[in-house]
Write a structure and sequence with these properties.
3 copies of one chain form a homotrimer.
Chain A: H1 3-7, E1 17-21, H2 26-35, E2 39-45, H3 49-53, E3 61-65, H4 74-82, E4 85-87, H5 91-104, H6 115-119, H7 122-131, E5 139-140, E6 150-153, E7 163-166, H8 169-181, E8 192-195, E9 200-209, E10 214-227, H9 228-231, H10 236-239, E11 246-253, E12 255-256, H11 261-279, E13 285-293, E14 299-305, H12 333-346
Parallel strand pairs in A: 1-2, 1-4, 2-3
Antiparallel strand pairs in A: 5-8, 6-7, 6-8, 9-10, 9-13, 10-11, 13-14
Helix pairs in contact in A: 2-12
C-alpha cells in the first residue's frame, strides 16, 4: 500500500479541502482553491490572523493557533482529517514544526515529504542536484582550498540571512570563527563553502503533475533583497562603508531567453526524477531551482526549494507568460495545485497526488 | 449638509462622467471608466492632445485647454458640471492649478480635497504619517544634528528632482546654500532633512472604498529612476565621476513577502483614518505609501501620495497579484474608481464618494 | 504587381498557416496563432526540437532541420508554400540564413524584408534613425574625436556581446586593436563608436498594422544582462576586478511615465514612415526602438530591431498594460500578428500584410 493510499484512507473525495499555513504563499493558494471551487482551511497563528481576516471569502475554515507548533498536534491533525484536508506545504511547515514532525504528519500532503530531510541539510541538497546532473557551483571541502570568490552559507540560512562572501582561505576562516562565536553554527564544518558564480540570478518555478505526467514551467522571478538591491542606488562614497545583506523582501517578474528554456525544463525534469530515486516517493506539486546565469549562458543551480516558492506570488490571479503556453485560462501555482487535486478526486486517484 | 452632497447637487446619477486631466495616469483611468460603461471627459492641453487622440475610443469628450490653468476657469467648471463629471485627481491637478484653486474647485472630486494642502508641505506630510503611528525616518531639526546619512528634500520636489544626499552637518549646509543660490528654496528651513534609511524602496498602492468600508491593497511597484538605475551598470571607474539623479522615468512591478502584508494593510488603514481626523473629510479613492524595507524587515514610510500614483499604470487592464484577492475580474485602479462611482450612483449614494 | 501580391499568389486564404523558426519568440507566436485559430508550422533544428515537443498543442506541423541553413532550401520553401505558410521573422532568420537568402526567401514574410540589409550594418541603422528625426547618441567618426564616455560596438554584435566602453581616444584604439587581434573585426572602421548616453535603458515594442493604419505600442521592457546586472550585487572590493559583460539573459517588465508616451509613439510612427521611404516596401508587424532615457527625460534611441524582440515574451497570454488600451482582450504580439493575418485573409487583403 502506497503512502498516498494509506494517508488519504477515509477521505471523502467529494468533499476535499485544501489546507495551508497562514504565511508565505497562503493567499494565492487559497485564492486558487476557491477559483477551482474547493473548500479551504487556513491554519494561522492568532497574531497573523488579522491579515487573512481581511479576505474572509478565501477560506471556509480558519483554525487559529496559539503557536505554530500546534500544527502537528493531535487536535489539529484530527480536525484536518475530519475536513478531508490536503495540506499544501510551504517553507513555513518545516520551519514551524521541524523536519521530524513534518515528515510524520498524519495529514495528506500535496508534495514529496521525503524531501524535507534532504532540504534541511545543505550538503544533501547539493548532492541531490549533482546526482540529477544539474550544473552547480563548486563546493570546497575546507577553507584551505578556496582559490576565488566564494559564498559561505550556514545551515538553515533563510531569507538571505546567514551568508557571507569571501575570496581567500583566511577570510573564510575568520567568517566561520565569527559565526561560531555568534552561535550561528557550532562547528565550522556545518557551513557550506560554495564557489560564487558571477552572473545574474534567476529562479525557475515548476509544477510536477502526476495526472498529466509532466513537469510544467510555471514562471520565473528575481528576488528583491534588502539592503543589497538598495545599496547600488547610493554613490560609492556613501555605500562603501555599508555591509550588504541579502534578506528577501519581495520578488520581481522576468522571462528568460527562449534558447535557455530547454535546459531549464530538462533540469526541472531531472530534478523530479532524482527526487523520486532519492526518496522512494513520487515528486509532485510546485518546486523551484535557483540559479545564476553566466555570460556564456550557462545555468548554474546553487539552491532549490522542494515546494512552492514565494516568487510564484507574482502570478496570482493572472498566471505567468509560461502558464499561458499550457493553459487557455489564468493558471497560477495556487490554482494549479487545486486543479490537480480536484481532478484527481474526480478520477478516484487522490492517493496519487499526496504523500 | 456634507461637502459631498453640496458638490454633486444637481447631478444626474444616471449620466455620470469620469473626468481626468490628460497626463500621469489618465489612460488607465479612462480605460477603467469605459470598461465600467461610464462616460469619460478628458481635459488636456492642446500640445498633449495628440497622445490621447490616438485612443479616441477612451473618451467621450475632449476639452482642449490652451494652458493647464484653464482647468479651474468658470467655463471648464461649468462644462464639467453640465456633463455630470466627477474629477479623478492625480498629481497634475495641484501641479497645474495650485493648492488654493484645487481645494476650491467647484467640481466633485473622487478623493479627499483636504489633503491637497497637507501634501504641499513636507513637514505636514511627515507629521500626518507620524500621527498615524506609521514608522518614518527620523527628521533632523537642523543641519547641526545630522549624525549619519541623510536625504535633503526641497519643498515640492517632484519626480525625483530637488533631492541630495549628505552625511555630515557641513555637507548639508553646503547643499542648502547651493539650493538657495539656485533659487530652489528661499530659506534653508524650507527643506526637510531626513534620515536616509538603508534598505530597498517599495511603493504600496491602496484604494479606500467607502461603499465596501475597507482599504484595498491594489498593487506595488519599484520606481525606475534616471540616471541612478543606469549608473550601476557602469564600471566604477566610469561611474565615480557622475552625480546620481533620481528622476522617475517609469515603474517596475513587484510583490512583497506575505509576512509583511499585514503591516502594509495596517499602515494603509491607519493612514486613511488619520487623514479623516486631520481634514474632517472622508478618505476615499487611490493613494500610496512610499517606503524603505530594511534588512530587519521593518517598513519605514518616507513619503505618501494622497491620490493615484503612476506606478499603478503597471496594472492597467489586468489588475495586480493583489487585486485578484478581492475580485474575480481584472480590477486595476482606474477601473476600481469607476466601479465605486458607478455603484454609488446606482445606490443613490454619489455624495459619499466625492468631496 | 506588389511584392506582397506576387509572393502570396497561389495561397488559399482560408487555409493560412503561421510559420516560425524555433527559437527567440517562437512559443508566443505559436500560442498567439493558435489563440486566433490559425494553423501553425514550426521550423526547428533537431537538437532544439525537444523544447517544442513539450508543447505539441502549439504547432500543426514541425519541420525538423539538420542545420538552420535548410530554412532557405528548395524543399523547405516548397513545403512552406504548399502549407500556405506566412513566416514571422525574428532575429533567428537573418542569423541562420544570412541577409541575402533572407531577402530573397520565396515565402511570404509578415514584416519588411527590405530592412534585413539595413539592420546588418550599424552605420545604416543609425542613419535610418537620424533620417526619421529620432534623437540618437552622437556617433564619432574616429577614435581621435572621442571626448567623453563612449560605447564601441562591433558589427553584428548580438545579445550584448562585442561591446566595450571607453572614455578616451587611446582606450578606443586599444580596444579596437584587441578586437582585430581576436578576429571580431578585420578593420577598426567596421566598429561604430557611439556616445554613451547616461540614463536608464528602456525598450519600446511596436506593432505596425496595415489594416488598422496605425502603429500600436504593445509594451516595454528592460533587459536583464549577465553579468552586469549581477555585479552590482557584489561589494566593490569583490566587483572591481571583474569586467562587466552585457549578454542578454532575459527581460523585466516596465511602464513609462505617461508624459513620455507621446514621444514614444511619435518616434515609432516616424520610424515606420522612414522605413517605407528607405526600402520602398511597407512597414508592418512588430518592431522595437531601444533607448536611454536621460534625467531630463530625453529619449535617445541607440538601436532598433526591425522585427519582434524577445522582450515581448513578457506579455504572452496576458498582453501588456499598453495592449489593453487598444483591445478588450489579451493581445500579446504573437496573437496580434495572427489577428492581422487572419483579418487580412478574411478581407481578401493578404497581399497587404506580407512582403
Amino acid at each position: 500500500m502506497s503512502i498516498g493510499s494509506r494517508i488519504v484512507s477515509g477521505y471523502d473525495p467529494e468533499r476535499i479541502c485544501i489546507a495551508v499555513i497562514g504565511s508565505h504563499s497562503a493567499l494565492q493558494i487559497l485564492a486558487g482553491a476557491k477559483r477551482e471551487g474547493l473548500c479551504t482551511v487556513l491554519l494561522v497563528r492568532e497574531d497573523l490572523a488579522p491579515l487573512y481576516e481581511r479576505f474572509p471569502w478565501l477560506y471556509d475554515y480558519m483554525l487559529k493557533l496559539r503557536s505554530w507548533s500546534e500544527i502537528a498536534s493531535g487536535t489539529i491533525v484530527e480536525k484536518l482529517r475530519s475536513l478531508n484536508a490536503i495540506l499544501v506545504p510551504h517553507a513555513g511547515l518545516v520551519e514551524y514544526v521541524g523536519v521530524e514532525r513534518a515528515e510524520k504528519l498524519e495529514v495528506p500532503i500535496h508534495g514529496n515529504r521525503g524531501l524535507f530531510r534532504i532540504e534541511a541539510d545543505q550538503h544533501s541538497k547539493m548532492r541531490l542536484l549533482v546526482d540529477a546532473g544539474i550544473p552547480t557551483p563548486r563546493v570546497y571541502g575546507s577553507p584551505e582550498e578556496v582559490d576565488g570568490l566564494v559564498i559561505v552559507k550556514m545551515p538553515g540560512a533563510k531569507g538571505g540571512r546567514g551568508y557571507f562572501l569571501a575570496s581567500s582561505p583566511e577570510e573564510v576562516r575568520r567568517g566561520l570563527e565569527r559565526a561560531v562565536r555568534e552561535g550561528l553554527i557550532r562547528d565550522p564544518r556545518e557551513a557550506i563553502i560554495q564557489e560564487y558564480v558571477v552572473g545574474v540570478p534567476a529562479y525557475y518555478h515548476y509544477y510536477a503533475s502526476r495526472l498529466y505526467r509532466r513537469v510544467e514551467l510555471t514562471g520565473m522571478d528575481i528576488r528583491y533583497e534588502s539592503n543589497v538591491d538598495g545599496l547600488r542606488r547610493l554613490p560609492p562614497r556613501f555605500a562603501e562603508s555599508l555591509e550588504p545583506s541579502f534578506v528577501v523582501v519581495g520578488n520581481i517578474p522576468m522571462v528568460l531567453r527562449e534558447r535557455l528554456l530547454l535546459k531549464v525544463l530538462e533540469y526541472g525534469e531531472a530534478f523530479a526524477r532524482t527526487v523520486e530515486q532519492a526518496t522512494g516517493l513520487p515528486m509532485m506539486g510546485p518546486y523551484s531551482l535557483e540559479s545564476i546565469v553566466t555570460p556564456s549562458l550557462e545555468i548554474r543551480v546553487f539552491e532549490f526549494s522542494g515546494r512552492i516558492v514565494a516568487g510564484t506570488n507574482l502570478y496570482t490571479g493572472m498566471g505567468s507568460p509560461y502558464t499561458w503556453l499550457y493553459w487557455d485560462e489564468p493558471m497560477w501555482p495556487g490554482r494549479r495545485i487545486a486543479r490537480e487535486v480536484r481532478e484527481a478526486a474526480l478520477q478516484g486517484r487522490l492517493e496519487e497526488v499526496v504523500t
